[in-house]
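Thread title: Can someone regenerate the structure for this chain?

I was given the following input by a collaborator and told the matching structure tokens would be attached. They weren't. Posting the sequence so someone can regenerate them.
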Amino acid sequence: MPYRRTPAVQARLDAGREKLFDAAIEVLSTQGYAGLSIASVAAAAGVSAGSVYTHFEGKSDLVVAIFREVCSREVAAVVAVSGHGSTAERVTAVVQTFAGRALKNRTMAYALLAEPVDPAVDAERLVFRQKFTDAFADAIVAGIAAGEIPEQDVRISAAGLVGGVGEVLVGPLSSQNSVDVIPGLVALSLRTLGVRDGHA
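Best answer:
Regenerated them for you:
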């Protein structure tokens, strides 16, 4: 008969994994991807390195899981503000939320957006970018339908906005520059889409 975990054993394993997740997110937030290792996560969680391997195959597996978790939170925050209002209001909300949250935790955001990472993590980053592109695309489709912005290739415009916002943020995120780039990013995004002044 195959071994089946009891609810108590499964709960203990789940709690251990959650503890490691929290520790890994803390390390990523303070030290970035370069500072995240099995040893650093184990130390932050107060467990042995072997305990980490109980839940994850290695650093890449661990970081992919962290990226999925953290990126899901960021995407949820953007989606929550992107569904209502005019094109200008929706795009403004997406940019302000995306950039504002990034600038509150620069080390984490730099790791998510631009820090050199393993190929498996880089693939996860592309999924993350696509979900943000989708949030912009929804606002653009609604804006075209409402006559607030000109007809345009929705996917190109949405991807361009995500790329532009990310590129502008790389400097402040990597240098701890205190310049507020958000108003400029909002203005650039609205101009890019062709939002007319009457709808701003």
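Residues 119-145 form the longest helix (27 residues).
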